[in-house]
Amino acid sequence: MSDTMLLRIGIAVALSLLFGAIIFFGRGRKSGQGRRVQREPSVGADGRVEPSLGEQLAGSWGEAPAQQEELELDGSPAQSELGKRVSDQFDRIVSLYVAAKAGNKLRGQDIVVAAEKAGLTFGHMDVFHRLVDGKPELGPIFSVANIIKPGSFEMSRIAEIETPAIAFFLTLPAPVAALDAWETMEPAAQRMADLLDGVVLDEERNALGRQRIQHIRDELRAYDRQHAAPPLSKPTRW
To answer: 24-43 burial, b for 16+ CB within 10 Å, e for fewer?
Structure first.
């Protein structure tokens, strides 16, 4: 099997995991499911229970317009190589979402403008990528896809595209340290959320807060320590 085919399979698996997570987060979760304790629902002044942010957004997640076809992983000669991973090996995916506020949608043209202002490049598999400055051949630090299948942004019809959210994801190992990749992705997500008048959600579809950010930083710092190159042994003195 060729290296190109292995790479495509690796990317396909990564996107399958991401879309599987998206479908999962778009469904109601069972009581006690997930790593975090769910907040008690707030009660409004009129006595009615107000749904959480995740519950407000859940209804529109996972919608897939019938006219959209599955992503062609075979590629085409005209497909951009910018943002293509140099290796099919990865062991973790870290994700965030920028979601439209309840009752709204993110529009394709606005996403393109926001992505450009956030320093992203449109490229491989018709999604956006954050590349290493001056070294695009190293592959993406992270990528941004549409949560509506097939996940791509078709530029020929970008004015027609509307989506409830976009997904930010980095696969580890990345071309930079895991913590550095996160410190690049999280501000970009916040920037795009500001530009799109959206909200940033974590992988569990909760509003991204300081405590969660610190937890992710600690996890990725530990990941970097675990995957650091072993120190060179000192030469033996005779």
So the answer is: bbbeeeeeeeeeeeeeeeee
The answer as to CATH 1.25.40.390 being correct for domain 3-27+53-62+79-226 is no
Using alpha carbons, list the distances in angstroms from residue 110 to 5, 82, 196, 207: 34, 21, 7, 22
Phi, psi for 44 (deg, rounded to 5): -75, 175
If residue 163 lies in a helix (H) or strand (E), which one and from where to where?
Answer: strand 162-163
pTM check: above 0.85: no
Classify burial at 198, counting beta carbons within 10 Å of its beta carbon; exposed 0-12, middle 13-18, buried 19 or more: buried
Structure-token pair, residue 185: 């992705």
Residue extents of the structural domains in the chain: 3-27+53-62+79-226
What does the pLDDT profile of the chain (238 residues) look like in tens digits?
A: 554 444 444 444 445 555 544 443 333 333 333 333 334 444 455 555 444 444 445 444 544 433 333 333 333 434 688 999 988 888 999 999 999 999 999 999 999 999 999 999 999 999 999 999 999 999 999 999 999 989 999 999 999 999 999 999 999 999 999 999 999 999 999 999 999 999 999 999 899 999 999 999 999 999 999 988 665 555 445 4
